Here is the input.
Amino acid sequence: MLTRQEIELLKSDVVRKAIDENIERNPAVIALDKRVPEARLVATEVKYLQRARHKLPRLYEARCIIPPRAFEQSSSEECAHRKDISGHALLDLTCGLGIDTIAFAERFDRVVALERDEALSEVVRYNLSLLGISNVEVITTTAEEYLSSCTEHFDWLFADPDRRSERGNKMVCLEDCSPNIIALLPHLQRVTRHIALKLSPLFDVEEAFRLFPHAEVEVVSLGGECKELNIYTGAEHDMLTIAAIGLGEWSFEREAMYDSATPREFTPDEYTHLIVPDVALQKGRVAIAALKPYASVWSNNGYAFTHKLPDTALPGRVYAIAHIERYHPRELKRRYKGLGIEILKRDTSLSVDAVRKAIGARAGSDRVVAITSIAGENWFIEIKTDI
Here is the structure.
């Protein structure tokens, strides 16, 4: 984390001017430029502002202070704005760099944000002033300390628990994260009825429903990468709902009941296209439900197949199929030996390396193929690459 002295330097007119004048330069070059005041500090800040240009465009434009570790752990502004909750007052237990806090400030009259690190608290207060945000109160304290004496009621409470141990190891279980939301639940329920949690993309959807009955769960992806798993408690209805969202592209929502797979044999000759479901559908275990109107689907974690593409955009990557056949290495070796092959795989115990070795191929881009298992059989699908 930045020291107090470094923060004061980054606030100074001289250093802010140097950052602005060097914003397009290579940070490694800036660090060695003796003409730049506080060159190494300016270089580091320029480096993270450049990285924030697309992830945190508001902070980039305002030339906010961006501490490296806080940047790595922060949401993108696009993900932060996806959390569709609003009201009079919100309590944010885990402010961090404040990206979610900033988004909530647009939807709530008042936001109280807790940050246990004093230096980071100071950075967030300064950044809020640069952004012209005046309805957020940043308090330097822990969630446990604040809740022990809190008498105010909030419309919503938000938490993005720290998923790193003191040694830097990744934590997945909610009870292991900080603050321990499960242990704090009695205190949380005393100050609010509605809780929004942002958890690791590795967190299990079934576990979310087990821990939080009547919850709404959403899995958010961006550019084919799973970014967030969000839980919203305090729903007015008794149905469990799950949503999968591809930011800026598509969304799918349903009650948390899982559809059965396509109830018939796999007939490869009738299919012309293979669909790789978006990671949010797979994570939310709703690929079957989302794609069943358009394709044959045997697994939430596998591929979907169709003979006719719909007019609507599909939530996943679509490939034209050259041909499909059962996986028989000896036969395949006659055609693929020595070729460079890119292999996609889903729902099979076969490894990419084992398949390449078995058919005498190597890593490369001469062919693109997919392998999967359906009804206990492994299938080999060659993808058309000349379209």
Notes: The first strand starts at residue 87 and ends at 92. The chain has three domains: 4-55, 72-255, 268-383. Residues 268-383 form one domain.
